[in-house]
Specification:
Length: 408
Protein backbone atom coordinates (compact mmCIF):
# COMPACT_ATOMS: atom_id res chain seq x y z
CA UNK A 1 0.00 0.00 0.00
CA UNK A 2 1.36 3.41 -0.97
CA UNK A 3 1.80 5.89 1.84
CA UNK A 4 -0.52 8.26 -0.04
CA UNK A 5 -3.42 5.82 -0.53
CA UNK A 6 -6.50 6.87 1.41
CA UNK A 7 -7.71 3.29 1.86
CA UNK A 8 -5.89 0.06 2.68
CA UNK A 9 -5.67 -2.43 -0.16
CA UNK A 10 -8.75 -4.53 -0.90
CA UNK A 11 -7.06 -7.55 0.68
CA UNK A 12 -6.28 -5.63 3.87
CA UNK A 13 -9.80 -4.20 4.06
CA UNK A 14 -11.23 -7.72 3.96
CA UNK A 15 -8.69 -8.87 6.56
CA UNK A 16 -9.58 -6.02 8.91
CA UNK A 17 -13.33 -6.69 8.58
CA UNK A 18 -12.85 -10.42 9.14
CA UNK A 19 -10.60 -9.93 12.17
CA UNK A 20 -12.95 -7.36 13.70
CA UNK A 21 -15.84 -9.78 13.27
CA UNK A 22 -13.82 -12.52 14.95
CA UNK A 23 -12.94 -10.20 17.83
CA UNK A 24 -16.60 -9.30 18.29
CA UNK A 25 -17.48 -12.98 18.52
CA UNK A 26 -14.71 -13.84 20.99
CA UNK A 27 -15.00 -10.76 23.22
CA UNK A 28 -17.98 -8.75 24.45
CA UNK A 29 -19.44 -7.06 21.35
CA UNK A 30 -21.08 -4.43 23.55
CA UNK A 31 -17.64 -2.89 24.19
CA UNK A 32 -17.41 -2.13 20.45
CA UNK A 33 -20.71 -0.26 20.20
CA UNK A 34 -21.51 1.05 23.69
CA UNK A 35 -18.25 2.27 25.24
CA UNK A 36 -17.43 5.94 24.52
CA UNK A 37 -14.82 6.68 21.88
CA UNK A 38 -11.98 8.12 23.96
CA UNK A 39 -10.97 11.50 22.56
CA UNK A 40 -7.79 13.49 23.24
CA UNK A 41 -9.68 16.04 25.33
CA UNK A 42 -9.29 16.97 29.01
CA UNK A 43 -12.75 15.71 29.95
CA UNK A 44 -11.69 12.16 29.03
CA UNK A 45 -8.50 12.40 31.12
CA UNK A 46 -9.41 14.39 34.26
CA UNK A 47 -6.60 12.92 36.36
CA UNK A 48 -3.46 14.82 37.28
CA UNK A 49 -0.50 13.65 35.21
CA UNK A 50 3.02 13.94 36.57
CA UNK A 51 6.36 12.73 35.29
CA UNK A 52 6.37 9.87 37.75
CA UNK A 53 5.33 6.28 38.23
CA UNK A 54 2.20 7.56 39.95
CA UNK A 55 1.27 9.74 36.98
CA UNK A 56 1.70 6.81 34.59
CA UNK A 57 -0.27 4.55 36.93
CA UNK A 58 -3.18 6.99 36.98
CA UNK A 59 -3.24 6.99 33.18
CA UNK A 60 -3.17 3.18 33.02
CA UNK A 61 -5.99 2.90 35.56
CA UNK A 62 -8.09 5.38 33.59
CA UNK A 63 -7.54 3.30 30.43
CA UNK A 64 -8.41 0.17 32.42
CA UNK A 65 -11.75 1.71 33.31
CA UNK A 66 -12.53 2.47 29.65
CA UNK A 67 -11.49 -1.10 28.74
CA UNK A 68 -13.61 -2.56 31.57
CA UNK A 69 -10.56 -4.35 32.99
CA UNK A 70 -10.99 -5.10 36.68
CA UNK A 71 -7.28 -5.55 37.38
CA UNK A 72 -4.82 -3.79 39.62
CA UNK A 73 -1.77 -2.30 37.90
CA UNK A 74 1.89 -1.78 38.71
CA UNK A 75 4.37 0.22 36.64
CA UNK A 76 8.17 0.30 36.49
CA UNK A 77 10.03 3.19 34.89
CA UNK A 78 13.23 2.47 32.99
CA UNK A 79 15.74 4.34 30.86
CA UNK A 80 16.77 2.88 27.52
CA UNK A 81 16.77 -0.83 28.38
CA UNK A 82 13.39 -2.36 29.34
CA UNK A 83 13.17 -4.48 32.49
CA UNK A 84 13.05 -8.28 32.09
CA UNK A 85 9.78 -10.11 32.69
CA UNK A 86 9.34 -13.67 33.92
CA UNK A 87 5.56 -13.42 33.99
CA UNK A 88 3.34 -15.70 31.97
CA UNK A 89 1.29 -14.09 29.27
CA UNK A 90 3.78 -11.27 28.76
CA UNK A 91 3.66 -9.43 25.46
CA UNK A 92 6.45 -9.69 22.95
CA UNK A 93 9.23 -7.21 23.65
CA UNK A 94 11.07 -5.39 20.91
CA UNK A 95 14.21 -3.31 20.82
CA UNK A 96 13.69 0.31 21.79
CA UNK A 97 10.15 -0.20 23.11
CA UNK A 98 8.93 2.96 24.84
CA UNK A 99 6.20 1.14 26.75
CA UNK A 100 5.68 -2.51 27.62
CA UNK A 101 3.02 -4.79 28.99
CA UNK A 102 5.04 -7.19 31.13
CA UNK A 103 2.30 -9.69 31.94
CA UNK A 104 -0.32 -10.54 34.55
CA UNK A 105 0.33 -12.18 37.90
CA UNK A 106 -2.88 -13.07 39.70
CA UNK A 107 -5.06 -9.94 39.48
CA UNK A 108 -2.19 -7.50 38.85
CA UNK A 109 -1.03 -6.34 35.41
CA UNK A 110 2.58 -5.12 35.15
CA UNK A 111 3.86 -2.45 32.79
CA UNK A 112 7.15 -0.74 31.96
CA UNK A 113 7.56 2.79 30.57
CA UNK A 114 10.69 4.48 29.25
CA UNK A 115 11.44 7.77 31.01
CA UNK A 116 11.80 9.49 27.63
CA UNK A 117 8.10 8.91 26.98
CA UNK A 118 7.04 11.01 29.96
CA UNK A 119 7.66 14.24 28.01
CA UNK A 120 5.31 13.18 25.18
CA UNK A 121 1.67 13.29 26.37
CA UNK A 122 0.19 12.13 23.06
CA UNK A 123 2.81 9.43 22.64
CA UNK A 124 2.49 8.00 26.15
CA UNK A 125 -1.31 7.90 25.98
CA UNK A 126 -1.34 6.04 22.64
CA UNK A 127 1.50 3.73 23.71
CA UNK A 128 -0.23 2.80 26.95
CA UNK A 129 -3.54 2.31 25.10
CA UNK A 130 -1.73 -0.30 22.99
CA UNK A 131 -0.22 -1.94 26.08
CA UNK A 132 -3.59 -1.95 27.86
CA UNK A 133 -4.99 -3.70 24.78
CA UNK A 134 -2.25 -6.32 25.30
CA UNK A 135 -3.46 -6.74 28.90
CA UNK A 136 -7.07 -7.03 27.68
CA UNK A 137 -6.16 -9.74 25.17
CA UNK A 138 -4.10 -11.63 27.75
CA UNK A 139 -6.81 -11.40 30.42
CA UNK A 140 -9.48 -12.66 28.00
CA UNK A 141 -7.22 -15.34 26.45
CA UNK A 142 -7.34 -13.85 22.96
CA UNK A 143 -3.58 -13.89 22.20
CA UNK A 144 -2.06 -15.47 19.08
CA UNK A 145 1.29 -17.27 19.07
CA UNK A 146 2.57 -15.40 16.00
CA UNK A 147 4.29 -12.21 17.19
CA UNK A 148 3.56 -9.96 14.19
CA UNK A 149 -0.05 -11.12 13.97
CA UNK A 150 -0.57 -10.56 17.70
CA UNK A 151 0.84 -7.03 17.54
CA UNK A 152 -1.40 -6.15 14.58
CA UNK A 153 -4.43 -7.61 16.36
CA UNK A 154 -3.51 -5.64 19.47
CA UNK A 155 -3.64 -2.44 17.41
CA UNK A 156 -7.05 -3.56 16.14
CA UNK A 157 -8.11 -4.22 19.73
CA UNK A 158 -7.33 -0.60 20.63
CA UNK A 159 -10.09 0.41 18.21
CA UNK A 160 -12.43 -2.23 19.68
CA UNK A 161 -11.83 -0.75 23.16
CA UNK A 162 -12.57 2.82 22.06
CA UNK A 163 -8.95 4.00 21.74
CA UNK A 164 -9.01 4.29 17.94
CA UNK A 165 -8.65 8.07 17.73
CA UNK A 166 -5.68 8.08 20.11
CA UNK A 167 -3.84 5.39 18.17
CA UNK A 168 -4.78 6.61 14.69
CA UNK A 169 -3.35 10.04 15.49
CA UNK A 170 -0.20 8.52 16.96
CA UNK A 171 0.27 6.10 14.05
CA UNK A 172 1.70 8.94 11.93
CA UNK A 173 2.97 12.14 13.51
CA UNK A 174 4.79 14.88 11.62
CA UNK A 175 7.36 16.84 13.54
CA UNK A 176 9.37 19.80 12.23
CA UNK A 177 12.01 21.99 13.81
CA UNK A 178 13.40 25.30 12.62
CA UNK A 179 17.12 25.95 13.06
CA UNK A 180 18.68 29.39 12.82
CA UNK A 181 22.41 29.42 12.14
CA UNK A 182 22.79 32.48 9.97
CA UNK A 183 20.55 30.85 7.36
CA UNK A 184 17.10 29.44 7.92
CA UNK A 185 16.97 25.64 7.87
CA UNK A 186 14.35 23.19 8.99
CA UNK A 187 14.37 19.57 10.05
CA UNK A 188 11.41 17.33 9.25
CA UNK A 189 10.66 13.92 10.69
CA UNK A 190 7.82 11.41 10.59
CA UNK A 191 7.22 9.29 13.67
CA UNK A 192 5.31 6.01 13.55
CA UNK A 193 3.72 4.44 16.63
CA UNK A 194 1.95 1.12 16.21
CA UNK A 195 1.90 -1.89 13.91
CA UNK A 196 -1.10 -1.33 11.65
CA UNK A 197 -0.68 1.47 9.12
CA UNK A 198 -2.46 4.76 9.91
CA UNK A 199 -4.82 4.14 6.99
CA UNK A 200 -5.70 0.72 8.42
CA UNK A 201 -6.38 2.18 11.86
CA UNK A 202 -8.55 4.91 10.33
CA UNK A 203 -10.43 2.26 8.34
CA UNK A 204 -11.07 0.19 11.48
CA UNK A 205 -12.18 3.33 13.32
CA UNK A 206 -14.56 4.15 10.46
CA UNK A 207 -16.01 0.61 10.69
CA UNK A 208 -16.76 1.21 14.36
CA UNK A 209 -18.37 4.61 13.79
CA UNK A 210 -20.32 3.39 10.77
CA UNK A 211 -21.64 0.41 12.74
CA UNK A 212 -22.70 2.68 15.61
CA UNK A 213 -24.32 5.22 13.31
CA UNK A 214 -23.26 8.04 15.63
CA UNK A 215 -20.23 10.02 16.77
CA UNK A 216 -18.73 10.83 13.37
CA UNK A 217 -18.46 14.59 13.87
CA UNK A 218 -16.71 14.37 17.25
CA UNK A 219 -14.24 11.76 15.99
CA UNK A 220 -13.43 13.63 12.78
CA UNK A 221 -12.86 16.87 14.72
CA UNK A 222 -10.22 15.17 16.89
CA UNK A 223 -8.29 13.43 14.11
CA UNK A 224 -5.16 14.92 12.57
CA UNK A 225 -5.56 16.33 9.06
CA UNK A 226 -4.32 13.28 7.14
CA UNK A 227 -6.09 10.86 9.46
CA UNK A 228 -9.37 12.75 9.06
CA UNK A 229 -9.14 12.48 5.26
CA UNK A 230 -8.46 8.72 5.46
CA UNK A 231 -11.35 8.32 7.91
CA UNK A 232 -13.73 10.16 5.55
CA UNK A 233 -12.60 8.02 2.61
CA UNK A 234 -13.28 4.87 4.63
CA UNK A 235 -16.73 6.11 5.68
CA UNK A 236 -17.61 6.78 2.02
CA UNK A 237 -16.41 3.31 1.01
CA UNK A 238 -18.40 1.62 3.76
CA UNK A 239 -21.57 3.49 2.83
CA UNK A 240 -21.12 2.45 -0.80
CA UNK A 241 -19.83 -1.10 -0.42
CA UNK A 242 -21.02 -2.34 3.00
CA UNK A 243 -24.57 -1.07 3.69
CA UNK A 244 -25.26 -4.18 5.79
CA UNK A 245 -22.10 -3.92 7.87
CA UNK A 246 -23.72 -4.71 11.24
CA UNK A 247 -24.88 -8.12 10.06
CA UNK A 248 -21.53 -8.85 8.41
CA UNK A 249 -19.77 -8.19 11.73
CA UNK A 250 -22.22 -10.42 13.56
CA UNK A 251 -23.77 -7.59 15.58
CA UNK A 252 -27.40 -7.90 16.72
CA UNK A 253 -29.93 -5.30 15.50
CA UNK A 254 -29.14 -1.81 16.90
CA UNK A 255 -32.55 -1.56 18.58
CA UNK A 256 -31.49 -4.38 20.91
CA UNK A 257 -28.24 -2.71 22.01
CA UNK A 258 -28.00 -1.48 25.60
CA UNK A 259 -27.72 2.24 26.31
CA UNK A 260 -24.24 3.72 25.71
CA UNK A 261 -21.93 3.90 28.71
CA UNK A 262 -21.82 7.24 30.50
CA UNK A 263 -18.66 9.31 30.07
CA UNK A 264 -19.39 10.95 33.43
CA UNK A 265 -19.43 7.55 35.12
CA UNK A 266 -16.22 6.40 33.47
CA UNK A 267 -14.37 9.61 34.36
CA UNK A 268 -15.32 9.65 38.04
CA UNK A 269 -12.33 9.94 40.45
CA UNK A 270 -10.04 6.93 40.62
CA UNK A 271 -9.36 7.10 44.35
CA UNK A 272 -6.02 6.12 45.87
CA UNK A 273 -3.25 6.08 43.23
CA UNK A 274 -0.11 5.57 45.32
CA UNK A 275 0.87 9.22 45.62
CA UNK A 276 4.05 8.19 47.45
CA UNK A 277 5.45 7.28 44.01
CA UNK A 278 5.34 10.93 42.92
CA UNK A 279 8.99 11.44 43.88
CA UNK A 280 10.32 8.75 41.52
CA UNK A 281 11.22 11.19 38.73
CA UNK A 282 12.18 14.87 39.11
CA UNK A 283 9.55 17.04 37.53
CA UNK A 284 10.51 18.93 34.41
CA UNK A 285 9.92 22.70 34.31
CA UNK A 286 6.27 23.28 33.55
CA UNK A 287 5.49 24.73 30.12
CA UNK A 288 2.29 26.43 29.01
CA UNK A 289 -0.08 23.90 27.48
CA UNK A 290 -0.01 25.52 24.04
CA UNK A 291 3.79 25.83 23.80
CA UNK A 292 4.26 22.78 21.59
CA UNK A 293 5.91 24.12 18.43
CA UNK A 294 8.82 26.21 19.71
CA UNK A 295 11.35 26.62 16.92
CA UNK A 296 9.13 24.92 14.33
CA UNK A 297 7.59 26.65 11.31
CA UNK A 298 3.95 27.69 11.55
CA UNK A 299 1.94 29.82 9.14
CA UNK A 300 -0.61 32.62 9.12
CA UNK A 301 -4.10 31.58 8.09
CA UNK A 302 -6.66 34.33 7.60
CA UNK A 303 -9.93 33.51 9.33
CA UNK A 304 -13.14 35.38 9.99
CA UNK A 305 -13.23 36.02 13.73
CA UNK A 306 -16.14 37.41 15.71
CA UNK A 307 -15.11 40.60 17.47
CA UNK A 308 -16.47 41.75 20.83
CA UNK A 309 -20.08 42.47 19.86
CA UNK A 310 -20.86 44.34 23.07
CA UNK A 311 -18.12 46.92 22.44
CA UNK A 312 -19.34 47.52 18.90
CA UNK A 313 -23.06 47.35 19.55
CA UNK A 314 -23.17 50.22 22.08
CA UNK A 315 -21.76 53.06 19.93
CA UNK A 316 -23.42 51.79 16.75
CA UNK A 317 -26.72 51.34 18.59
CA UNK A 318 -26.58 54.91 19.93
CA UNK A 319 -25.86 56.20 16.44
CA UNK A 320 -28.73 54.12 15.08
CA UNK A 321 -31.11 55.49 17.73
CA UNK A 322 -30.19 59.05 16.81
CA UNK A 323 -30.70 58.18 13.14
CA UNK A 324 -34.17 56.84 13.94
CA UNK A 325 -35.08 60.04 15.81
CA UNK A 326 -33.96 62.08 12.81
CA UNK A 327 -35.80 59.76 10.41
CA UNK A 328 -39.04 60.21 12.38
CA UNK A 329 -38.91 63.93 11.69
CA UNK A 330 -38.54 63.34 7.96
CA UNK A 331 -40.68 60.33 7.04
CA UNK A 332 -41.72 57.08 8.74
CA UNK A 333 -40.19 55.02 5.91
CA UNK A 334 -36.73 56.29 6.85
CA UNK A 335 -37.05 54.69 10.31
CA UNK A 336 -36.99 51.22 8.74
CA UNK A 337 -33.96 52.21 6.65
CA UNK A 338 -32.11 53.44 9.77
CA UNK A 339 -32.90 50.22 11.66
CA UNK A 340 -31.74 48.09 8.72
CA UNK A 341 -28.48 50.02 8.31
CA UNK A 342 -27.76 49.85 12.06
CA UNK A 343 -28.33 46.09 12.22
CA UNK A 344 -26.24 45.57 9.10
CA UNK A 345 -23.37 47.64 10.51
CA UNK A 346 -23.29 45.62 13.73
CA UNK A 347 -23.34 42.36 11.77
CA UNK A 348 -20.61 43.38 9.32
CA UNK A 349 -18.30 45.06 11.80
CA UNK A 350 -18.75 42.22 14.26
CA UNK A 351 -16.94 39.86 11.91
CA UNK A 352 -13.60 40.57 10.29
CA UNK A 353 -10.66 38.77 8.83
CA UNK A 354 -7.79 38.17 11.23
CA UNK A 355 -4.54 36.21 10.80
CA UNK A 356 -4.26 33.16 13.08
CA UNK A 357 -1.73 30.42 13.74
CA UNK A 358 -2.15 27.47 11.36
CA UNK A 359 -1.79 24.83 14.12
CA UNK A 360 -5.29 23.44 14.92
CA UNK A 361 -4.59 23.15 18.66
CA UNK A 362 -3.33 26.75 18.83
CA UNK A 363 -5.06 29.21 16.40
CA UNK A 364 -3.71 32.19 18.35
CA UNK A 365 -4.18 35.60 16.76
CA UNK A 366 -1.16 36.96 14.87
CA UNK A 367 -0.27 40.22 13.15
CA UNK A 368 1.25 40.83 9.74
CA UNK A 369 4.55 41.56 11.48
CA UNK A 370 4.52 38.52 13.81
CA UNK A 371 7.64 36.37 13.61
CA UNK A 372 6.75 34.08 16.53
CA UNK A 373 3.34 32.73 17.50
CA UNK A 374 2.49 33.89 21.04
CA UNK A 375 0.40 30.76 21.67
CA UNK A 376 2.57 27.81 20.60
CA UNK A 377 5.98 29.45 20.15
CA UNK A 378 6.28 28.44 16.48
CA UNK A 379 8.30 30.49 13.98
CA UNK A 380 5.92 32.25 11.56
CA UNK A 381 7.21 31.24 8.12
CA UNK A 382 4.60 32.82 5.84
CA UNK A 383 0.93 32.82 4.85
CA UNK A 384 -1.20 29.92 3.58
CA UNK A 385 -4.82 29.81 2.47
CA UNK A 386 -5.97 26.86 4.59
CA UNK A 387 -4.74 25.26 7.79
CA UNK A 388 -4.91 21.89 6.01
CA UNK A 389 -2.01 23.05 3.80
CA UNK A 390 0.40 23.54 6.70
CA UNK A 391 2.18 20.16 6.39
CA UNK A 392 2.71 20.59 2.65
CA UNK A 393 3.94 24.17 3.22
CA UNK A 394 6.40 22.99 5.87
CA UNK A 395 7.65 20.27 3.54
CA UNK A 396 8.10 22.80 0.72
CA UNK A 397 9.99 25.03 3.14
CA UNK A 398 12.26 22.14 4.06
CA UNK A 399 12.94 21.34 0.39
CA UNK A 400 13.75 24.98 -0.41
CA UNK A 401 16.10 25.12 2.56
CA UNK A 402 17.77 21.93 1.32
CA UNK A 403 18.19 23.39 -2.17
CA UNK A 404 19.81 26.53 -0.77
CA UNK A 405 22.19 24.58 1.41
CA UNK A 406 23.06 22.33 -1.56
CA UNK A 407 23.89 25.29 -3.79
CA UNK A 408 26.00 26.89 -1.08
Amino acid sequence: MSGFDALPSEERREWLLARLGELLRRADWQQFVCTPIVLPRPEFFPDRFTRSASGVLRLIRRLFRYADLELAAEVELYEGRPPPSQLTGASYHHEGAAGLFLGIDGEVAYFGVDLALLDDPGGITATLAHEVAHAFRTHHELCEDDRDLEEALTDLTTVFLGFGVLNANAALRHRSQAIHDGTFRSQWSVQRIGYLSPQELCFALAVQIYARGAGREAVEACLETNQASWFRAAMRWLARERPGLEGELGLPPPETWPAPDSVAKLTRPLGDTHDELEVDVPSAPALPEKVAHVGRPVFRVWRRQRADQAMLALPIGIAGLLACVWAATVHDAWIAVAVFVTAGAIGLLGRRWRPCCSEPECRSLLTRASTTCPGCGGTVAGDIERAEDRLAAAEALRLRAGDRSGRS
